[in-house]
Structure to design on (302 residues):
């Protein structure tokens, strides 16, 4: 056996475990979901081929269509708020860390620390913090004479409370991505801008922002994918039904509830659930590809 062939065999041997795991737990379930989306189900068994009926029902027919579009609207709200508030603040934090103020390394650790926590732990803790009777948030508001609402029990505040929790949990991730992009900018460029009289605002908007285009691409794509795959925090903090009154229902919860049932209904519908999963996969893949193409063009122009 030649050296090149031995090397190829060794590489195949190293890759085989990962390929087996990916095939069993990613590729096979994905292909199964595509197949099940075209079948009607009798309990746990596929009954008959129904073509595009499952897709048509979850998109256009009652009661599925109303649930689908409500959950989709909530995902759009999540993405919009996280892009503007979470990532906007992360950009400002990254700029502050770039200035290497005293203790900036400690601040980097503090900013990133929530990211390493489990989403389940974060959701459970913030559910306690937001409790209307003994929660830390309402207790703090009482000190200044404000009676806080039942944050997770009110339809007007429930989704916003979970979005805030998500921003607290993940803000350190885009902050460090932006910081890494800023640190790649040469010191000479920044110093020249300072000599020309550029303020912090001009520096952030006119000089640094175009030069961190690759970091922006990563942040936008990951935020979009994460927003439309949202599941753990809404599930832990509001439950599988998206309470109260569906105000926190998102596509991930709706898909899981449809495919595997919940405590209240106990019904399982793999056909409609698989159709939802396929629609989510196609939507996220197509929009991510288009956004990546547009943002890559911006990188070249910048």
């Amino acid at each position: 056996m030649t050296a090149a062939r031995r090397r190829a065999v060794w590489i195949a041997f190293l890759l085989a475990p990962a390929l087996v795991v990916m095939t069993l737990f990613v590729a096979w379930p994905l292909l199964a979901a595509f197949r099940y989306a075209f079948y009607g189900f009798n309990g746990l068994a596929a009954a008959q081929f129904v073509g595009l009926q499952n897709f048509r029902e979850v998109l256009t027919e009652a009661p599925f269509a109303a649930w689908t579009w409500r959950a989709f609207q909530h995902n759009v709200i999540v993405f919009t708020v996280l892009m503007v508030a979470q990532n906007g603040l992360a950009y400002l934090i990254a700029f502050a860390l770039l200035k290497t103020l005293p203790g900036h390394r400690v601040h980097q650790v503090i900013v990133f620390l929530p990211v390493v926590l489990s989403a389940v732990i974060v959701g459970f803790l913030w559910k306690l913090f937001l409790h209307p009777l003994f929660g830390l948030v309402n207790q703090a508001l009482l000190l200044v004479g404000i009676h806080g609402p039942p944050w997770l029990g009110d339809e007007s505040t429930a989704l916003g409370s979970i979005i805030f929790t998500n921003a607290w949990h993940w803000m350190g991730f885009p902050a460090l991505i932006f910081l890494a992009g800023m640190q790649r900018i040469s010191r000479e460029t920044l110093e020249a801008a300072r000599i020309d009289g550029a303020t912090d605002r001009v520096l952030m908007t006119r000089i640094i922002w175009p030069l961190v285009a690759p970091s922006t691409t990563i942040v936008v794509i990951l935020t979009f994918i994460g927003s439309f795959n949202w599941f753990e925090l809404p599930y832990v903090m509001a439950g599988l039904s998206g309470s109260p009154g569906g105000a926190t229902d998102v596509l991930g919860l709706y898909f899981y509830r449809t495919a595997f049932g919940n405590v209240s209904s106990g019904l399982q519908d793999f056909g409609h659930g698989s159709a939802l999963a396929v629609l989510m996969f196609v939507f996220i893949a197509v929009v991510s590809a288009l956004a990546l193409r547009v943002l890559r063009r911006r990188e070249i122009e910048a």
About this structure: The CA atoms of residues 94 and 179 lie 5 Å apart. Residues 64-98 form the longest helix (35 residues). Residues 37-301 form a domain with the MetI-like fold fold (CATH 1.10.3720.10).
